[in-house]
Amino acid sequence: MRPASFLLAACILPVPALSAPPAGTPADTERVTIYRCTDAQGRLSLRDSPCPAGSRQQARSMLRPKDAPAPVVPAVPASPTVATPSGAAPPQAYVLRTPRPLYECVTPDGARYTSDTPEGNPRRLPAWTLGYPVLQRATVIEPGGLDIGYGPGGWRGSYRSGSVRDVIVPTPAGYGAETWVRDACHPLPQAEVCARLRERRDAIGTRRFNAQPSDRERLDRERRAVIERLAADC
User: Fold this and answer.
1) Statement: the pTM of the whole predicted model exceeds 0.85
2) What is the pLDDT of residues 93-127, one digit of tens each?
3) Residue 215 and residue 223: Cα distance in Å, rounded?
4) Residue 182's pLDDT is what?
5) 44-47 and 31-38 strand pairing
6) Could you give the CA distance from residue 194 to residue 233 in angstroms, rounded to a whole number?
7) Whether pLDDT at 227 is above 90
8) Residue 70 lies in a domain
9) Number of neighbours of residue 221 by Cβ within 10 angstroms
10) In a domain, 49, yes or no
11) Of 70, 125, 162, 186, which one has the greatest count of Cβ atoms within 10 A?
């Protein structure tokens, strides 16, 4: 049996029986015959095969419905290509990024060094190394009072007057106090950054040439990192 929707359409829109397709019908259109059957109890049924014996039969011919053609999707035009002159290199894509900064720092005694961060080289130092005093003068006040003691003659008492005197005592720095020291750092221009990196690369190469075998692996890693930074930022 065919789907019920198809048979219902045949019942609602019957087409007279035709022996040949009407004029203008495409050659590839398929025709089907639908049988309308009424049994002895008057029940109606539609089928695509002849009715069973004992049923009243009516046959109709109609065109088989077809799905609508798929919509035509317009083709997307290809991106125009730029002709490359013969022998010329194809265009290349470059990814730009901000170069990493390099800072020059100055220690309290005037020594200079470079750092990858504006923090420089913070460190803890004893306070006395920065000029903090180790000893200081302090004033001691001794209050007066009554001194009582027991001697051979019995109990005796005397009055002691107060006094004020200066003494020398250790300061916090003298007890080993420490403080954080941070150097003043400022960023270098990019041209100066590249020059410093090249100097660092050459200095590491010289140190590696004179280094022990156990230190060469570490120096090789440092030199590779400098070379990669030069390639990316310079």
Assistant:
1) no
2) 665 678 899 999 998 888 999 999 998 888 887 87
3) 12
4) 87
5) antiparallel
6) 8
7) yes
8) no
9) 11
10) yes
11) 125
- Where among 41, 63, 85 does a domain terminate? 63
Number of domains in the chain: 2
* Per-residue pLDDT at 223: 92
Give the tokens for residue 183.
Answer: 């150097």
> pLDDT tens across 154-205, in order?
677 677 777 777 777 777 766 677 778 889 999 999 999 999 999 999 999 8
67: which 2 tokens?
């799905």
β-pairing verdict for 184-187 and 103-106: antiparallel
Domain that holds residue 37: 4-63
Where does a domain end: 36, 63, 90? Answer: 63
In a domain? residue 77: no
CA dihedral 39, 43, 44, 46 (to 10 degrees): -70
Residue 127 lies in a domain: no
- Under a CB-based contact definition with an 8 Å cutoff, are residues 112 and 106 in contact? yes
